[in-house]
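JOB MANIFEST
job_type = single_chain_structure
chain_count = 1
residues = 392
[input]
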Amino acid sequence: MKYVYREFKAIWKRFFDNFKIAFVGMDVKLDSVYREVESQRIKTNFVNIIPFSVFVIIFELSSGIFNIAAGDIWYCRVGTGVACLSFLLFNIAAYIFLERTLASGDATDKSKEYFTYLYWGVYVITASLINSFETISSGSISSFFLTVFSLTSFAMLEPKLIFIYYFVIAAEQTAVTIITKSSFDVLVFSLFTVAVGLFLSIFKYCTYMNRSIETKRFERISEIDPLTGLLNRRGMQRSVDGIWSYCKKHSIPITFAMLDIDYFKKYNDKYGHSQGDECIKMIAECIKQTFSRRTDITCRFGGEEFIIIVAGETEEKVLEQLKSLKREIENLKIKSGCPEFNENITVSMGIHSVDIYSTTMFRDAVLGVDAQLYNAKEHGRNCISRKNEIIR
């Protein structure tokens, strides 16, 4: 049985991976833009539960009061009452949890995703139970239509989850139709409604993903320096916006480093701009190899200047990396445009750490590291300046 289960699970996974490739248009395992859009989709789904849970709470309270006041027998039965009360309490608990989680800002994408799966799973099962009691008691299938409408309108889930949820709805409605001996037309119409809801949910998911990915890719292109493949200023600002408040809130150290190629203008004058571009590309490659963590931010700040932003490492560790980078650049043995200063190309660097307990802004941090780079140039270049101390 375990072997059959593993094989079925593998086939299921391959099917939906291929589904995504066909309809979203890429290998989702490798595309970083997809992962960024997927993260945004998860957050949107998570936040959208708040207004929906409020709607459910108001709807359940008002319909309960109305039905009891009207003496509606089916609503007063124990099974229906327990299901509706459980549904109401679950949505109240979900609302409180969501508000507290969003206020704390500590939830990861995984936890948000799992909670979304749990919420909609419980919603579908509970709503199906309520629909069963309603149909058996009064012959009405209004709860069934409301369940399909809610799932189609408010949730934007992966196709495999959508298939499962709609399968549960279809199975419940089929079983109830058989139990109540309703006409075949009712069953056909119900299954047709499920099929339409399934199609609309998948269409909404694919449309959202395709448009978001296309938009994000254009944004990425505008944020990348075409010569080096590093971020430009706009890309750096966006990347910093994504980590700055989080690092400050959780007391995670952030270290800035700025690098400038010594006498690069003379190099361009001597060897030409084409060779100058090659020099910049080689140095950029060294930067990428030295600061290769996913969270490291590397940027061509302008001309021959580069900025490196490292979160979660001590200033001493970043300083050691800068020393290593300096050696790597010297080992390139690129002929200098100013041989009276040095035979080969050298770089000047500044390093500056952000005080995580202060109200330092990003602009202040850039000014701080720029001041350290200026200090390195003032002290003969080909060195690193840290807290106005020169390291060669």
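[summary]
Residues 233-391 form a domain with the Alpha-Beta Plaits fold (CATH 3.30.70.270).
The radius of gyration is 30 Å.
exit_status = 0
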